[in-house]
From TrEMBL:
Keyword Nucleotide-binding: yes
Binding site for ADP: 148-155
Cited InterPro entries: Kinase-pyrophosphorylase, PPDK_reg
Catalysed reactions listed for this entry: N(tele)-phospho-L-histidyl/O-phospho-L-threonyl-[pyruvate, phosphate dikinase] + phosphate + H(+) = N(tele)-phospho-L-histidyl/L-threonyl-[pyruvate, phosphate dikinase] + diphosphate; N(tele)-phospho-L-histidyl/L-threonyl-[pyruvate, phosphate dikinase] + ADP = N(tele)-phospho-L-histidyl/O-phospho-L-threonyl-[pyruvate, phosphate dikinase] + AMP + H(+)
Protein name, per record: Putative pyruvate, phosphate dikinase regulatory protein
């Protein structure tokens, strides 16, 4: 039987890291895991001592809120050619990117974290896994499915909703690409179709193209092409019998708020399962 050494480094109890790694390693029934828990780490000296116990075959999982300590751990690991699973800061970074807020990074705060934290991490991982329609099997598993043509803010809206513990997937609409069968297995009330003014969409796509170094005319932001895509999208929304939201004048945050309000009108019994700000 294969053995794996895992060191859990935390400024708190290490329970978050332990629950995470147990969830991961449960998928490997033939693996013997040696968990070493190092809680209440608050100094670089303690980190150095912990890393003396590690080698290249060791997995280090950290939940350290203090940025300097977290960076120090990663630097030590890098010198040893080791990778660190930084699950707390990964979640913090994604929330900061999605919301524009800054984490307080208070040491030991994870002691007070509830089930909401783990639900949020799970929702963020879900959003990444099922983003951009790359795995249609995620549609029937979703709380919400966002559907729309390119550049209607599906992915950033998905990430904001994930921070509120919603499991969200999204599907890009392209007239030449057939809709996956799985989208028709979703409750229509869980599907949100996004529309936008064609002129604004053309401007957004043109700016995006230029930022990628694409010069000259492009079908991507051609007016006729865009109108064709949006017309196709509205036909799809009729077929799906889903809610449609116009995002032309909306910020991403406003779109997310509109979706949440609609969702709880349709599924009031699920209100307790999601974070509200």
């Amino acid at each position: 039987m294969k053995e794996l050494k895992v060191i859990l480094v935390s400024d708190s109890t290490g329970e978050t890291a332990q629950n995470y790694i147990k969830s991961v390693t449960s998928q490997f029934p033939d693996l013997k895991v040696n968990l070493i828990r190092k809680p209440s780490i608050i100094s670089t000296k303690e980190i150095d001592e912990v890393m003396e116990e590690a080698d290249k075959s060791t997995i280090v999982v950290q939940t350290i809120a203090d940025k300097d300590l977290s960076n120090h751990l990663r630097e030590v690991a890098k010198k040893r050619n080791m990778e660190v699973l930084d699950i707390l800061n990964y979640g913090i970074r994604k929330v900061e990117e999605a919301t524009g807020l800054k984490a307080i990074r208070q040491v030991g705060l994870t002691r007070t974290l509830s089930k909401d934290y783990f639900d949020m991490i799970e929702a963020i991982e879900f959003a990444i896994k099922y983003d951009d329609g790359k795995d249609p099997r995620g549609f029937p598993l979703s709380d919400i499915v966002l559907v729309g043509v390119s550049r209607t803010s599906k992915t950033p809206t998905t990430m904001i909703l994930a921070t509120k513990n919603f499991k969200v997937s999204n599907l890009p609409l392209v007239p030449e690409i057939r809709l996956p069968q799985e989208i028709f297995e979703v409750d229509p009330e869980r599907i949100i179709g996004l529309v936008i003014d064609p002129d604004k969409l053309s401007n957004i796509r043109e700016v995006r193209s230029k930022s990628l170094g694409i010069v000259g005319e492009s079908i991507y932001y051609d007016d006729k092409r865009i109108r064709k895509e949006l017309e196709y999208a509205r036909e799809v929304y009729k077929d799906l019998d889903c809610k449609v939201i116009d995002v032309t004048e909306n910020t991403i945050e406003q779109t997310a708020t509109d979706i949440v309000q609609y969702y709880f009108e349709k599924f009031p019994e699920e209100h307790k399962d999601h974070v509200q700000y």
